[in-house]
């Protein structure tokens, strides 16, 4: 039976943010959105940072459209179009196999999406955003593809999005095929493997970044002389070391690698012509606080990492929650620009903590 022109089909999906501990920065192919190096991230709890997207389609819709946080958002770009096309092709194949299915693949799509955290501010909104985009349409189309297959599609929307199709510890393997087919996300370990790992988010600025991730990494690949060594030598070795640290739940090695990779990524940004500055004075104060926490503890109990923006993500083990959050909470009162939005309130300062470093 033909659908009436007023029929509307819809599905809603959520997707979490992931924050990389080994960073993706550089495209091997801008067309396929494949990376110059593999990367690895931790998927955060959806209770804090998440995207929620409702996808609908109807014979009465005249064009594909997206409303992001209440405002119309362009979907004419090649990357959104690639996601639409791939998902429609999978639905079309399903309709060809079963002629009783309504022809949703021929209808225009409307997406309504909301991020409950700052968009384009270096807190991985494109990751949660495109993961939810793909998942909502896949649900609407009742596709059977597994998360790795969906990650191949989400990658084309935003690289980091492929990792948000999984929970826990997730690698995006750069792949070696010319068509990008093996450039997909795989779960390295489920959340249950290391359930005590936590992330504190220090919101330093919710303003839209001056240089988007897409254009920043293209400038770095084109101009940084440090970049080839990072992508080809430093990161491949770090990926292996990070997988081992996660397998062994070795927080100190995890922390050393996470902080070193964040610094290496921001170093190649500084080495870009013209230089790109994502971290600011308040970000650097967060680095000093983490260094001070680790000095007081006599071992690495906290690890900072910064994406393409000034906001800090600080990983720690639940067993050290009091000392880590105590110090960060003190900072939210004292450092201009720090917000305690995602910090626990009932935490105490570590013994011997040097409060004088809490100035940006
Ligand atoms: P971020 O550090 O937040 O990932 P990016 O520069 O990588 O910043 O990407 C920001 C862009 O991602 C936005 O301008 C928008 O185009 C896209 N985006 C963010 N959230 C969503 C969403 N919920 N749905 C679709 N696209 C989104
Ligand atoms: C610093 O995935 O946002 O957060 O593929 O161009 O959309 P596009 O870039 P995006 O880049 C993320 C960069 C990063 C590191 C990371 O998440 O691995
Ligand atoms: Co992004």
TrEMBL record:
Pfam family, one: MVD-like_N
Any one GO molecular-function label of the UniProt entry: ATP binding
Catalytic reaction equation(s): (R)-5-diphosphomevalonate + ATP = isopentenyl diphosphate + ADP + phosphate + CO2
SUPFAM superfamilies: GHMP Kinase, C-terminal domain, Ribosomal protein S5 domain 2-like
Residues in Mvd1 C-terminal domain copies: 200-360
Keyword Membrane set for record: no
Keyword Ligase listed: no
GO CC term (a single one): cytosol
Pathway membership, UniProt: Isoprenoid biosynthesis; isopentenyl diphosphate biosynthesis via mevalonate pathway; isopentenyl diphosphate from (R)-mevalonate: step 3/3
UniProt record similarity statement: Belongs to the diphosphomevalonate decarboxylase family.
Database matches in NCBIfam families: mevDPdecarb
Name of the protein described by the UniProt record: Diphosphomevalonate decarboxylase
Organism: Orbilia brochopaga
